[in-house]
């Protein structure tokens, strides 16, 4: 690969958009250019590089091996240029867009976010919640807090906390059957969302391999925090992550009848695009939240 002396900045900008969208047409729509103009700029860049960057197929394009190597570096370079310009603008305030699962947002983030804002008063925080995995290339978000295994292509992920789970219920509900003394006693009560695979895994770990959950009502409440509210109200037994409900346990609103904790390999992670890891507001939030969880900083 032999580069010419002229630095093709405009062609690189077009290449970055085309690689990100996987489409010359959508790149043109973003940049206000015709598809022909996009193709021309890509051709100029390929001539400059001396290698093809895209495989052209009917109604489809794909990056070549050279294009795959170039795309993330170009994307990171434009991100750094954008942040450099933003850092010297007259508007000193910047907005951090956080996408989180509803349970993590309500049970942890909302209770701790104030300390981040005290440390970074120039960062305005906007929080959106959903269990859906967002596409950073299509949705306006800086960082996401996800549950999963931490392996998402193109994203840098940092472990925040283990997503352990165990049954929890109100003391009054436990007393209604004379107390919960063995794992099988839980089956005398309503199971909140018996279709949740966590239940089968927990009962097997507890020595109840065939709890007969298939015939029970399956009510999805949409988020673990809602199931916890139902359990506090005495409406059934919920399988929950106890780290989120330490206050409820301490206040006696919930009890954890057994020390048996399970984990299905999914945990809570902080994730953001790899090419934006040096963005000041992302770096500030990353360092703050990793510190809150006692995780090593980069």
**What is the CATH fold-level name of the largest domain?**
D-Maltodextrin-Binding Protein, domain 2
Q: What is the CATH architecture assignment of the largest domain?
A: 3-Layer(aba) Sandwich
Q: Regions with pLDDT < 50 over 5+ consecutive residues?
A: none
Mind telling me the CATH class of the largest domain?
Alpha Beta
Number of helices: 10
The total beta strand count reads 9
- Which term fits the overall shape? elongated
Task: Identify the strand order in the major beta sheet.
Answer: 4-3-5-9-6
| Structural class by helix and strand composition | alpha/beta
Mean pLDDT: 88
The sequence of SSEs as H and E is: HHHEEHEHEEEEHHHEHEH
CATH superfamily of the largest domain, by name, is Periplasmic binding protein-like II
Helix content: 25-40%
Tell me the major beta sheet.
5 strands, mixed
Head-to-tail CA distance between termini: 33 Å
Q: Strand content of the residues, in percent?
A: 15-25%
The overall number of domains is 3
**Rg calc:** 25 Å
GO biological process, one term: DNA-templated transcription
InterPro entries: LysR-type_TF_proteobact-type, LysR_HTH_N, LysR_subst-bd, WH-like_DNA-bd_sf, WH_DNA-bd_sf
GO molecular function: DNA-binding transcription factor activity; sequence-specific DNA binding
Keywords: DNA-binding, Transcription, Transcription regulation
């Amino acid at each position: 690969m032999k580069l010419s002396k002229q630095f093709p900045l405009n062609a690189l900008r077009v290449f970055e958009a085309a690689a990100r969208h996987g489409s010359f047409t959508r790149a043109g729509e973003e940049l206000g250019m015709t598809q022909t103009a996009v193709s021309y700029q890509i051709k100029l860049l390929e001539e400059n590089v001396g290698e093809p960057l895209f495989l052209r197929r009917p109604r489809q394009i794909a990056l070549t091996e050279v294009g795959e190597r170039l795309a993330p570096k170009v994307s990171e370079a434009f991100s750094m240029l954008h942040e450099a310009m933003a850092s010297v603008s007259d508007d000193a305030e910047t907005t951090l867009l956080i996408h989180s699962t509803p349970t993590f947002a309500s049970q942890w983030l909302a209770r701790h976010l104030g300390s981040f804002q005290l440390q970074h008063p120039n960062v305005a925080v906007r929080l959106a919640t959903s269990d859906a995995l967002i596409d950073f290339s299509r949705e306006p978000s800086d960082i996401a807090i996800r549950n999963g295994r931490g392996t998402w292509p193109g994203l840098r992920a940092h472990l925040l906390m283990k997503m352990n789970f165990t049954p929890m219920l109100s003391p009054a509900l436990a007393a209604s059957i004379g107390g919960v003394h063995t794992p099988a006693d839980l089956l005398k009560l309503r199971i909140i969302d018996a279709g949740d695979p966590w239940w089968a895994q927990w009962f097997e770990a507890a020595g109840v391999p065939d709890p007969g959950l298939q015939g029970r009502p399956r009510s999805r409440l949409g988020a673990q925090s809602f199931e916890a509210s139902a359990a506090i109200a005495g409406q059934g037994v919920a399988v929950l992550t106890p780290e989120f409900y330490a206050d409820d346990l301490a206040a006696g609103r919930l009890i954890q009848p057994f020390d048996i904790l399970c984990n299905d390999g999914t945990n809570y992670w902080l994730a953001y695009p790899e090419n934006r890891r040096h963005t000041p507001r992302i770096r500030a939030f990353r360092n703050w939240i990793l510190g809150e969880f006692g995780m090593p900083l980069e």
